Amino acid sequence: MTSYKDAGVDIAAGERAVELMKSRVARARRPEVVDDVSGFAGLFDASALTRYKRPLLATSTDGVGTKVDLARRLGVYDTVGHDLVGMVIDDLAVCGAEPLFMTDYIACGKVVPERVADIVGGIADACALAGCALVGGETAEHPGLLDADEFDLAGAGTGVVEADDVLGPDRVRPGDIVLAMASSGIHSNGYSLVRRVLATTDLTLDSQPTDLTRPLGEELLTPTRIYAQDCLALTRSGGVRAFAHITGGGLTANLARSLPPTVDAVLNRASWEVPPLFRVLQAHGDIPRPDMDATFNLGVGMAAIVGPDKAAEALRTLAARGVPAWHLGEITPGTGTATLT
């Protein structure tokens, strides 16, 4: 006789994981969430959108990439849950959307209830920071496809924005100012290159080069800064033309996505000091500058394009919210490119 557990799927472990995560998930709620007793779906009261004249729903989906491998190796799981929210919800913020709710998906070789609860707990805590509800998710056990300690996670989020208030390239014009919002670290892009450096140099997760104040592994697992509420605060103050979430592709490639074909963004490389973690990786890995620029955020996690008369106020708003920010560059007539000079 062969049971499902013999095949590698432990239903009881999954149920235990659900019980462990319940209290933390409960903190990631909004008033519009309606409980579905069956648990098969998340419910959200759409009548809350009647305050909009023409509400547009915005949706985004993403994962954490190979950063999960470092989390596995270090046995730290809540920070990658935080990263997932940053990757998904901050994409919504780019168009000016208010985040409403999110769902998650975790695939693992073996359900370890405490590990799953840590991952989902991190997602829930970050959802609370972002102002959105965690309305559901799925944990799948894939024995034979993933080793017992391997896992991956992904998520999807939904937000809403007034049709007349959608931000984007059509609002950007010459003379606008580009502001940078500091990243908290590497966030969740470029970890395949990080892992390559670890595999081919003397750096290890336990290393602590002189430029760092803690072991490299801890630096690499620093969770993604979540900008959603900061971006909403800027849009409420007026003058925001567009945002750019600095993810895969680096600063210039992502900022170019928020430009019309009639302007350029000219960015001043001397306006900030690249954080030590990036310099350590570049030096030890002998990574050329173009590869650094095209792979990592280099200390800039989100960029805002604002009218010149609103730049000072925007910087004051971000400072009051505890977000390091600075004047990064200007918008000039051009062909839709962003350059670091």
UniProtKB/TrEMBL annotation:
Its Enzyme Commission number(s) read 6.3.3.1
- Alphabetical list of SUPFAM superfamilies matching this protein: PurM C-terminal domain-like (SSF56042), PurM N-terminal domain-like (SSF55326)
Which keywords accompany this UniProt record? ATP-binding, Cytoplasm, Ligase, Nucleotide-binding, Purine biosynthesis
List the subcellular locations.
Answer: Cytoplasm
Highest taxon listed in the record's lineage: Bacteria
Per UniProt, residues of the PurM-like N-terminal domain are 53-161
Give the PurM-like C-terminal domain ranges: 173-336
**Looking at its record, which EC class is this enzyme?**
ligase
- UniProt pathway: Purine metabolism; IMP biosynthesis via de novo pathway; 5-amino-1-(5-phospho-D-ribosyl)imidazole from N(2)-formyl-N(1)-(5-phospho-D-ribosyl)glycinamide: step 2/2
> Per the record, what are the reactions this protein catalyses?
2-formamido-N(1)-(5-O-phospho-beta-D-ribosyl)acetamidine + ATP = 5-amino-1-(5-phospho-beta-D-ribosyl)imidazole + ADP + phosphate + H(+)
Key word ATP-binding present in the record? yes
Which CDD domains does the UniProt entry name for this protein? PurM
Q: What family does the database annotate?
A: Belongs to the AIR synthase family.
Query: Could you tell me what this protein is called?
Result: Phosphoribosylformylglycinamidine cyclo-ligase
The scientific name of the source species is Actinomadura meridiana
